[in-house]
């Protein structure tokens, strides 16, 4: 049996995933995914390359842009620059609805993986007649 479309087309035309996600986000009270994508693409132009390497937009929470920084000192710097950053964001089409910035400090995941894992130190060796305990000086 070969596949054939339904006679009435199933009642719906195919839609792009982006359109479906945008509609779902708007129904949930959020901004469209395309606004965050535009902000992310223009981020280095807004904040500069050096800052963009340390501070990354990660989400829109209503009218607030959530930015992840890799160091608490950068969180402080971003909070001090909020007004200038918002001015730059408002130059991006569709980003005028962003009215605030929420800064979160956290470890940045390096490209290509989760980074090195913490290794536990080896367990202490038991003292035995042929292996006396080591003393720290």
Task: Give the arrangement of secondary structure elements.
Layout: H1 17-27, H2 33-47, H3 49-54, E1 55-61, E2 64-69, H4 72-80, H5 82-89, E3 100-105
Parallel strand pairs: 2-3
Antiparallel strand pairs: 1-2
Instruction: Please write the string of helix (H) and strand (E) elements.
Output: HHHEEHHE
What is the CATH class designation of the domain at 20-105? Alpha Beta
Into which percentage range does the β-strand content fall? Answer: 5-15%
The parts where pLDDT drops under 50 for at least 5 residues are 109-116
Distance between the termini: 82 Å
User: What CATH architecture label of the domain at 20-105 applies?
Assistant: 2-Layer Sandwich
Describe the protein's architecture and organization.
By secondary structure, the chain is α+β, with helices and mostly antiparallel strands. The chain has a domain at 20-105: 2-Layer Sandwich (GMP Synthetase, Chain A, domain 3), CATH 3.30.300. The chain is built from five helices and three strands. It has helices at 17-27, 33-47, 49-54, 72-80, 82-89; strands at 55-61, 64-69, 100-105. Strands 1-2-3 form a three-stranded mixed β-sheet. A hairpin with a 2-residue loop joins strand 1 and strand 2. The longest helix has 15 residues, at 33-47.
């Amino acid at each position: 049996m070969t596949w054939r479309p339904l006679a009435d087309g199933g009642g719906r035309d195919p839609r792009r995933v982006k359109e479906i996600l945008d509609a779902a986000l708007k129904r949930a009270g959020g901004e469209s995914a395309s606004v965050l994508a535009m902000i992310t693409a223009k981020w280095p132009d807004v904040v500069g390359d050096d800052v963009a390497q340390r501070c990354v937009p990660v989400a829109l929470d209503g009218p607030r842009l959530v930015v992840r920084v890799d160091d608490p000192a950068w969180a402080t710097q971003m909070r001090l620059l909020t007004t200038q950053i918002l001015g730059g964001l408002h130059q991006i089409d569709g980003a005028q609805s962003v009215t605030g910035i929420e800064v979160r400090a956290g470890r940045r995941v390096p490209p290509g993986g989760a980074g090195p894992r913490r290794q536990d130190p080896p367990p202490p060796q038991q003292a035995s007649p042929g292996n006396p305990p080591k003393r720290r000086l």
